[in-house]
Amino acid sequence: MIAAESILTFTLPAELEAGSPPEARGLRRDQVRLLVSYRSDDRIVHAAFGDLPRLLRAGDLLVANDSATLPAALIVHRTDGVEIRLHLSTHLHGWLWVVEPRQTVVSAGESLALPGGGTATLLVPYADSRRLWIAQLDLPAPVFEYLRRWGRPISYTYVPDSWPTEMYQTLYAREPGSAEMPSAGRAFSPDVLERLAHAGVGFVTLTLHTGVASLEGHEPPYAEPYVVPAETAEAVNAAKATGRRVIAVGTTVVRALESAADERGRVITSRDWTDLVVTPERGVRVVDGLLTGFHEPKASHLAMLEAIAGRSHLETAYAEALAGRYLWHEFGDLHLILP
């Protein structure tokens, strides 16, 4: 586990927590703000996401996560009739899932009544977690079909209203499996992708299915399944071999690429699980830049950002974001870290 005191801390005003999608605020997806920080000289540029094609170079390679978000939140009932929320996090095997019963104490063997006649039986805590359990699901339909009927996207208190699953999908989402949206790529639009291609910027994808966020206890990330296809590995290796920049779209992409890389930084075609925690001590071998949202104080992802940008630069960028009233969370603004 990463020591909380070693991670960047700051005060996040409640009014900077984006509580609704940009579309509900009168904006297109690609009209969110973009803070660009250059780690070589701490230069900061304030831009809009639609400016991305002119901010990157011909030959740059963007790598994005094509995992699609599941409507993974369910309203369930305990045996005494008490209603609680259950979040499905990670598919393990067959009908076994990692789940999170929200804000309640549960015990092994407990059976939860799911809507539509399903049940979830809690077996054992997952990976010594205080809040995650391995559960066996008994559902009246295949799980994705069932969730489309009965589930809704996972959201937290800073998003007071309910939004359809489409609001939690990226344009290029293809492989269903994430409990929460790989949100760094949400702002991409057909127009931005077209202009990136015209500017000579490459765009490839991999898949990493994200579990539920580690907001409680500042837990480190736990194991998640990922796939780095051959064409993506080849594109990344070719870019590195010719001195072109590899820019990850989101921390999930950093985690997958660094997990799939050998000691020389060469990415290997992979299908595996990763529990890698990227820290400043470990560093990064593959990525040169990162497009990401703004992360909560002491969030474990900030250690990854520090591994890429350094603590001093990260402090400078976050001070600018706070002063500039940028918006946090999955519906908020974005931060592009470049060399």
Structural summary, described in words:
The protein is of the alpha/beta class. Helix content is 19%, strand content 27%. The chain has 2 domains: 4-69 and 163-338, QueA-like (3-Layer(aba) Sandwich); 73-150, Thrombin, subunit H, CATH 2.40.10. The chain contains 7 helices and 17 strands. A hairpin with a 5-residue loop joins strand 5 and strand 6 (83-93). Helix 6 packs across helix 7. It starts with 32 loop residues before the first strand and ends with a strand. 43% of the residues are buried. The mean pLDDT is 94.
Topology pattern, helix = H, strand = E: EEHEEEEEEEEHEHEEHEHEEHHE
Give a count of the beta strands, DSSP E runs of length 2 or more. Answer: 17
> What is the beta-strand fraction?
25-35%
The name CATH uses for the topology of the largest domain is: QueA-like
- Average pLDDT, rounded to a whole number, is 94
The radius of gyration is: 20 Å
CATH class of the largest domain: Alpha Beta
- The class by helix and strand makeup works out as alpha/beta
N-end to C-end Cα span? 28 Å
Low-confidence sequence ranges: none
**Fraction of residues in H or I helices:** 10-25%
Characteristics of this structure?
QueA-like, 17 strands, 339 residues, 7 helices, Thrombin, subunit H, single chain
